[in-house]
Amino acid sequence: MPLVNIVIALIVVGLALWLINNYIPMAGSIKTILNVVVVVAVAIWVLKAVGMWGRITNYKFMN
């Protein structure tokens, strides 16, 4: 996936999260959970987009 597409997707997700946090009234704990879920999902998506997710999931620890 081209880097420009990744950057545009990150900007769109960040803008959407900012709009939700500022303009939709909800409890602080729910906002925190929403932010954590979105950040983790985007991090996993970026790792998959750049091809690093397979290396992370197949990593074997030393015994």
Give an overview in words.
By secondary structure, the chain is mainly α. It has one domain (3-57). It has 3 helices and no strands. It has helices spanning 3-23, 28-49, 53-57. The radius of gyration is 15 Å and the shape is flat. The relative contact order is 0.11. The mean pLDDT is 92.
Summarize the structure.
By secondary structure, this protein is mainly α. It has helices at residues 3-23, 28-49, 53-57.
List keywords for this structure.
63 residues; mainly alpha; 3 helices; flat
**Gap between N and C termini, in Å?**
36 Å
Number of domains: 1
Oligomer: single chain
Please state roughly what percent of the residues sit in beta strands, choosing from under 5%, 5-15%, 15-25%, 25-35%, 35-45% or over 45%: under 5%
Shape: flat
Low-confidence stretches: none
Name the helix and strand elements from N-terminus to C-terminus, one letter apiece: HHH
**Alpha-beta content class:** mainly alpha
Structure annotation, total helices: 3
Helix content: over 70%
Radius of gyration: 15 Å
Please give the largest β-sheet. Answer: none
Q: What is the β-strand count?
A: 0
Give the averaged pLDDT, no decimals: 92
